[in-house]
Amino acid sequence: MLVNFTNTYNRQVSELDIYVLVYNDDGLIIGGGWDWTRDPIPAGESAEIEVWVNYADAETIADIEAWVVPTNWTSFE
Q1: Which of 60, 55, 63, 48 is nearest to 6 (CA)?
Q2: 3-class secondary-structure state, position 65
Q3: 31 in Cβ contact with 54 (< 8 Å)
Q4: What confidence tens digit (pLDDT) does each residue in 6-49 have?
């Protein structure tokens, strides 16, 4: 799954964690995944980050929620 992140900070960022949850039609969490990137992302720029998501094959994904957070190693330059 590709997550597109736009850096809304006014500085370049690096070392970001990306978390994903997937839901079924009933709104239940059926899986998820996470990854990280060390690539610097300039202020106002976007990046696509591939995140591997695990979920039961018998389930159908109805909704996806993703969020990106700085890690404790993030550099704001």
Answers
A1: 48
A2: strand
A3: yes
A4: 999 899 998 999 999 999 999 999 999 999 999 999 999 999 99
